[in-house]
């Protein structure tokens, strides 16, 4: 069991062909392009932006969205994520119990995170021109059961060639 990451921790993965893979010249290994991927541990144990947040003070809701966006920009910048052009993004929420949760509600948190990666506002860290589907593939957020572990949110960003 690996210890959970702390907020702001970043893991980067790069892949290469297995040793058993060989090219047409049976002596040359096939080289796969490196997979450029970043897993950014977010500082929240629960989603900071909730779909029903609009029932209260609209200014408080806007402040949470702004804070979430700025935090993501800071984390992406500190992770050193370069300009990608195109990318995949998925938010994963690790939970220690089997309480029924709706992954649709995580979309409200995913939006400001993605906006920070494609925006031009102060604090953003632009890695794609825009967060349109052709440049940023946003997958449905996932909720993963991890017994005995604390709640944790991780955003995975993967470059698309």
UniProtKB/TrEMBL annotation:
It comes from the Bacteria. One of its GO terms (molecular function) is magnesium ion binding. Gene3D superfamilies: Holliday junction resolvase RusA (3.30.1330.70). Residues 1-36 are annotated as: Disordered. One of its GO terms (biological process) is DNA recombination. This is Uncharacterized protein. It comes from Arthrobacter alpinus.
């Amino acid at each position: 069991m690996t210890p959970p990451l702390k907020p702001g921790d970043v893991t980067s993965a790069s892949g290469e062909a297995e040793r058993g893979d060989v090219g047409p010249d049976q002596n040359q290994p096939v080289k796969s392009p490196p997979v450029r991927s970043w897993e950014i541990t977010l500082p929240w144990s629960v989603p900071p932006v909730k779909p029903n947040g609009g029932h209260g003070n609209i200014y408080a809701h806007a402040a949470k969205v702004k804070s979430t966006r700025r935090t993501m920009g800071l984390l992406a910048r500190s992770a050193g994520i370069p300009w990608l052009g195109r990318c995949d993004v998925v938010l994963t929420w690790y939970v220690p119990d089997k309480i029924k949760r709706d992954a649709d509600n995580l979309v409200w948190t995913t939006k400001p995170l993605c906006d920070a990666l494609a925006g031009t506002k102060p604090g953003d860290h632009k890695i794609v021109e825009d967060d349109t589907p052709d440049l940023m593939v946003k997958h449905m957020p996932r909720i993963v059961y991890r017994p005995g572990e604390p709640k944790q949110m991780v955003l995975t960003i993967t470059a698309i060639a």
